[in-house]
Recover the amino acids of this structure.
């Protein structure tokens, strides 16, 4: 089964992360079959100062 790597800006709550991994797991099993126990989700929180879009750091955005 799959392993998902999720990178996102820091600041999400534990509850949001729990819901995200539950939904990723649910959809994976629904689409691919298999067992929920075989789906891995790795979350990496990235500081806003280490992520840029359009040439501008997210820490500089208002």
């Amino acid at each position: 089964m799959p392993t998902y790597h999720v990178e996102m800006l820091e600041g999400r709550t534990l509850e949001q992360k729990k819901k995200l991994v539950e939904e990723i797991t649910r959809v994976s099993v629904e689409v691919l079959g298999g067992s929920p126990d075989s789906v891995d989700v790795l979350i990496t929180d990235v500081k806003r100062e280490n992520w840029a879009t359009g040439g501008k750091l997210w820490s500089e955005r208002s």
